[in-house]
């Protein structure tokens, strides 16, 4: 398949495909949806300012903790969590809903994507496939399989598969050697644009590395790379909670989980814990997801009190499956 997905895709931000007709959005009235879809620059700029302030506080925490390991490590971890949560504005900008102005969505999206080692345009199309084929075993590129063991669970949390995929994306984008899966969600018409963006990112990262080595500077390492890596398990845990353990069906009311996270996390994650709501109406900006939740919450089939509760249930299920699959004593192979 050479990027010609017109027969299968509903388009960026689409709600289904011919082979995976999603259901659930019909519960939202057209009038209500029209009201909620209103976009504005104000909420996005305010939320971005809050996130940038949190990043600045993280930098200060790391700076003043230097030389004191028992303070420095927690400071870098907290700062790293704020960095990885930049995934939220990247995600929102990819939908064009973070801001009313298209150019602000593109600039902010590209900037936060670059800071977290992701190519913005590539992500935009990959994420469109995730929305079109949510929880489809073969066609959802972001499906997270239910862990088969505790080792598998913790491997997913620390990113054993995530980091090779991220590095592989940059390498393949630089060389233009896209996989068959990537050719399914990347139209051939955008290959050159995607490759150009990734090559520019690669040049940027090489330049930063070269300058750091030349000046024997650890600034990029301490204030960017290490915190970015340290914070990733938190984002892996959040992303796992969005769909893992939910139905692998086209029913958006059951295949996506909403998590009633605390206000601070909702703030820094741009209301993405309201994830089922987002999948039901991806054209609704982040700042209106709380109102959408009030509208659809009686219909949602997968809602959790917190991320802690989600992962407690996942671990319990993993252990339960492990016990069920254990070979009885005396019957070993």
From TrEMBL:
The chain crosses the membrane at residues 44-64, 70-91, 103-123, 202-226. It comes from the Bacteria. Its EC number is 1.14.19.-. Keywords: Membrane, Oxidoreductase, Transmembrane, Transmembrane helix. Residues 69-301 form the Fatty acid desaturase domain. GO terms for molecular function: oxidoreductase activity. PANTHER family: SPHINGOLIPID DELTA 4 DESATURASE/C-4 HYDROXYLASE PROTEIN DES2 (PTHR12879), SPHINGOLIPID DELTA(4)-DESATURASE DES1 (PTHR12879:SF8). This is Fatty acid desaturase. It comes from Mesorhizobium captivum. The lineage of its organism: Bacteria, Pseudomonadati, Pseudomonadota, Alphaproteobacteria, Hyphomicrobiales.
């Amino acid at each position: 398949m050479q990027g010609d997905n017109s027969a299968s895709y509903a388009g960026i931000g689409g709600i289904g495909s011919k082979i995976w007709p999603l259901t659930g959005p019909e519960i939202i009235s057209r009038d209500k949806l029209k009201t909620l879809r209103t976009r504005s620059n104000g909420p996005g700029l305010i939320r971005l300012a809050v996130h940038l302030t949190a990043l600045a506080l993280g930098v200060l925490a790391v700076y003043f903790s230097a030389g004191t390991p028992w303070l420095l490590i927690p400071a870098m971890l907290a700062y790293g969590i704020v960095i990885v949560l930049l995934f939220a504005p990247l995600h929102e900008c990819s939908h064009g809903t973070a801001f009313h102005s298209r150019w602000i969505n593109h600039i902010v999206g590209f900037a936060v994507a670059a800071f977290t080692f992701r190519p913005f345009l590539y992500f935009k199309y990959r994420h469109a496939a995730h929305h079109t084929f949510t929880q489809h075993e073969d066609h959802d590129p972001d499906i997270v399989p239910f862990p088969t063991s505790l080792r598998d669970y913790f491997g997913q949390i620390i990113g054993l598969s995530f980091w090779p995929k991220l590095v592989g994306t940059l390498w393949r984008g630089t060389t233009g050697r896209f996989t068959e899966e990537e050719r399914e969600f990347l139209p051939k018409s955008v290959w050159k644009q995607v490759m150009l963006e990734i090559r520019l990112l690669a040049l940027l990262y090489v330049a930063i590395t070269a300058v750091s080595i030349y000046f024997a500077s650890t600034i990029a390492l301490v204030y960017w790379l290490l915190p970015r890596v340290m914070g990733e398990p938190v984002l892996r845990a959040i992303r796992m909670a969005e769909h893992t353990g939910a139905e692998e069906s086209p029913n958006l009311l059951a295949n996506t989980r909403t998590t009633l996270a605390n206000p601070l996390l909702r703030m820094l994650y741009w209301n993405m814990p309201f994830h089922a709501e987002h999948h039901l109406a991806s054209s609704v900006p982040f700042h209106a997801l709380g109102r959408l939740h009030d509208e659809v919450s009686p219909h949602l089939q997968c809602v959790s009190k917190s991320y802690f509760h989600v992962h407690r249930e996942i671990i319990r299920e993993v252990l339960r499956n492990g016990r069920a699959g254990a070979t009885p004593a005396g019957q070993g192979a």
